[in-house]
Amino acid sequence: MLALFLAAVWFSITIDDGPTTELCAQLATVRQTLKLAGWNGVDEFYSANCLPEQTAPETTTIAGLELKTAPESDGGVAYGRWMYEQGGWDDADDDGCDTREEVLAAEARTLADDDEACVPDGTWWSWYDEREIARASGMDVDHMVPLAEVHESGGWRWSNERRFAYANDLTLAQTLTAVSASSNRSKGRRDPAEWQPPAELAWCQYAQDWIAVKVFWGLSADADEVAALRTMLAECDGAPRIVLPTPTPTPTITPTPSGTPAATPTVTPTRAATPGPTATGTPRATPSPAATVTVSPSPSPRPVARPTPRPTPRLTPTATPVPTPTATPTAVPTPTPTPTATRTAIPTPTLTATPTARYASCQAAIDAGEERVQGSSGGGRGFPVELFSHPRPRDGDGDGVVCER
Question: Residue 124: helix, strand or coil by DSSP?
């Protein structure tokens, strides 16, 4: 401990004579250790003395967002998966179910009736490779932008808290997704210039989700990556445009007058209606859209509830707040208890007839000359999902129309 303290003092004294590239590289390598030793200001010290003068980053407009562009770099801080996982998945709400289990439960097509298990038996649709998986052990929860890619896209500058927050992000639906273990391991740490989902029908959604995560978390993309993303976006119907969720404002606490005991405020995170982009390029119901999004999410606290998944639209719980009692001297109103969250399903378009399932794939319906119908989202036309036998094609926007073009 004394040696680490002396090292911190040595860095602070030596660098006053003028930081050198070699000295800054040494500091970048050991600054996490120095922080653990008690030098809490090492990150600010490093930023002020070693990072070059900050200028506006180069950006490119893609899918309606401004994406930072820069070559990949680890900034001299060697990547280690432990920097982000820090012991494994988090359990943000202390309900006994960790982040992986929360995502699997939220994105399941069906779940058995078992209140004792975080992830009961069920079925899942792996949208990377269009496979139905009949057991949780066959599924992985994939970081859309892999941890190693995050590190080389700006994550090397992050604090340990922010890294852990990304690894367990339940704020942005696109950050984590449940897919088959084989497709996730095939992807590994590769970016879109090196790997794309085996199912081409997933390319549009995959590119949009990748961009959403990078912009939301302030990460950059290199030239080859951007070129590959544009190629994948060409599979979308129309011009895709991503709308990111608006961050929940920090509540303002009103001081309690002296002499009255102060009540501890309870802040319950709320989830956005449906923040994820649709596979047809038309955004789902979200807060007011903006062409440029500069959201910098706070690493904590993490919300208890996860937003809508991609394979099956998530249901949005809405909580009724407890009304404030009316200030009437003759009556003391009783606050209405907060009811259990209700779920409102996303409406699907009304079809003129109930088709009979008779196709195994989109191509089979196309070859049969099946007539396309208009979906409720965007301008794309496709086939009613009821035309298909299980496993059915992925309905990314939840409007009951698939294979949209």
Answer: strand
